[in-house]
Design goal:
Elements lengths: L1 H18 L6 H15 L3 H13 L11
Helix pairs in contact: 1-3
Length: 67
């Protein structure tokens, strides 16, 4: 179950990276992603965590927000 959640979160993170590329800081990405997260019903903090997870592949990026 945790693996499935991590896989779907990674997919969301990849979407977040398409909209807010990795070179943007979390602060700058939050400005860009707020509208997207609202449109898909995702909490902004979860969206940012998913973005960090997609960049790093490290599940610790999800600790306290998604997992």
């Amino acid at each position: 179950m945790v693996d499935d959640l991590a896989a779907s979160t990674h997919a969301i993170g990849e979407l977040m990276l398409e909209v807010a590329p990795a070179y943007l800081s979390d602060t700058d990405a939050a400005d860009v992603l707020a509208t997207l997260c609202d449109a898909i019903g995702e909490d902004l903090e979860h969206g940012l965590a998913a973005r960090r997870y997609a960049m790093s592949g490290d599940r610790r990026a999800l600790h306290g927000t998604v997992l």
